[in-house]
Every structure is written in structure tokens, then in C-alpha cells.
Amino acid sequence: MTATIRDAALPFTGGALTALLSPATRLLGLGEPTHGVEAFPELRNELFRHLVAHEGYRSIAVESDCLAALTVDAYVGDGTGTLDEALDRGFSHDFGAHPANRELLRWMRAWNARRPASERLRFYGCDGPLEITGAASPRAALTSLHDYLAAHLDPECDRARLDRLLGPDERWTRPAAMMDPGQSVGRSPEASELRLVADDLSALLAWQAPRLTAATSADAFWHAELHARTATGLLRYHAGMAHTAPTRIDTLLSVRDAMMADNLDAVVRREARRGPTLAFAHNRHLQRDESRMEFGGGSVRWWSAGALVSARLGEQYAFVASTFGSRGADVPHPDTLEGVLSSLPEARAVIDPGRLAAGLDRKLTPRVPADHTYFALDPTTTDQTEAIVFVKDVSEGDA
Q: How distant, in Å, are the alpha carbons of 28, 284, 364, 394 from that of 377?
């Protein structure tokens, strides 16, 4: 290891990381290389506490169902419900079971309990109501949007028609539809008509924004926009599930990350006067370069939420990737990025990508991990990150 590479690293602290960011940053994306390893959400918690205390951040958005997250935000905001209820009902992907998420909510609630409403921390989900096994029914999003509008306006579609087109939720949530387009109702006549209805309701919401905001509140209108985005995104995702084209999975991943980008963009706009936002999701969802992965014997490609939001926000978006060295018997080869970083003395380090690239004396090869759920960093794209957070060793118990 050259002295230059050693100079590219500092022990991980919130201050060491933020020193590498532009002061214009409004959305900081912190990626994790895999789910289920507690070292990364624990690191996220530590960073968020620093950002709140020293950098003026007042919100966090995580890779979880954006509608379910309203339950979490109500708990951390004013103590609605209990911690266990927020963890059980407020997260998708079973993330509520992770100890670090329990600790995050407990800390946010304690912070908010001592402060006025205007200074309280907010919790957001940036993902759609999606799981690996499929997508939710659009019912909750569509009916919430319709009911908000109907309380003040006269939308063309009445509730009876909406219920008829939606039908039973079981039609929308069949797990088999994820891999079998024939099991999906996403391109049925009813679903196609619902897409037009959702578009009409969303347009009506936008056209009447001044009236509706005055009649309700800015927060109520923002939540109506959230339901509008989610309804149209879900219907688009269901249509993608029913598609038979070879690029079907590429489309689904693109739709999902577009929903995430729209949610993050909306969060940044809502939080503009309060402070920046920390986003926490998989590296593949937050990176600037094109995302790729192997699926079903082929390669799929899509633009991540980070790439999309970066195109909109420019220097106001910052991306910090994280990765790790050893995980039990899975030890990185010395010629990989993770192998080089494993030679650093720090257990957790913040890496300056520019200094790292200047200190390398050989071309690095991509790591091939033993665990297919872990995505190693591409050593050719480190210039598209503001920083890299490296954890030298994660225990098998974190898996």
C-alpha cells in the first residue's frame, strides 16, 4: 500500500465524511452493498445523528414503502401509536425487524419529544409499495387520492366506479405474477381504465393546487401528491408485470427506481426550508452510473433513483457508496478494490475517491463475492461517488 492510498483514508466519523461533500448538498445518498448486515444501518444511524446535530439535516428517507412509512413518521413525530406498531406496520421488506431500525426510531422519537413541531425530524419511505414477490393493490393510494379530491371538488370518477374497476385486492397481489405475466391483471381492461382514471385525478390535483392547499393545508396537499404518485406508479408497475417482452425485468426495475426518484425529489422540495435529507438504500438504487445485475440467466440494466435524481438536482445530490472487506470465509482478493482497502488499518474508514485513484499503481479487478446478495463496487466508477465508506470486516452473525 502506497502512502498516497493511506492518505486517502480517515477513520469513519460524520465530520470526516461531510468534509468531502459540497456545501450545496440537499440530498445525501448513503448506499449499502447488501441488506441484512447490521453494520451498515448502524453506521447510517451514527451518520444521521451527526448530520442532525451539526449539519442541519431534519429528515431521513429509507428504502421502504412510502405509504407504510407514514405510520413511522406519525410515531416519531408526535408519538402516535407505539414503537412496536411502527416497526411492524411502517416498514416493507421485513426491515422493521432490524435492531438498527428500532434504535433509529427510538432516537428520533426522543429528539422530537423535546422540540416544537417545526423543528422535528421527519421519516420518509422512498420505495413504492413493492416486495420481491410482487406489488400491492393500487386501492389504498387511489381511494385516498379520490377521497381527498371529492371532499372539495367533483372528480369525474365516482367512488363506486373506482371500487368496481379495482375489484378484489387478491387480483393484484398474486405472487405468481412476478415471474408469470399471464398471472398479472396489469393489462386487463379494468387496469387500463384505472390508469386513465389515476392520470385524470392526478391532473385535477395539480390544476387545483392553490385551492386545495388553502382549503386543507400544505401537509395535507403533499400527502395527496404522495398518493397520486404512488397510484400512477403502481399501475405502471402492474402493467410492466403483465408485459411479455424480453426486457420485462429491466422495465420493472426502471419503474421502481423512477418511483423512488420521484419520492426523493418530492422530499427534497418539501424539506427545502428545513434542511437537507439523508437517503439510505442499496448502492444499486443510489449510484449515478447505470445499474446492472444478473437475473434469470441474463443481464438486466436500468437507471437508478440516484442517477435520475442526480440529473435533476445536479450538485445538490451527493452519493456515498459503502462496501466491506471480509465476511467470514469470503475474503477479497488483493487486486480488488475491497482487497486494497482491506490493507488500511482502520476498522471503518472514509475514502476520498480522487486520492484513492491517484495512489493506485495497478488496474483493479471487480470482486466476485461468494454471496449473491452482495454487490461489490465497480472499481471503474468510484469517480462518480463523493466518498466511499469501508467496513473492514462484518461478522457472519450480521447476515
A: 18, 10, 11, 16
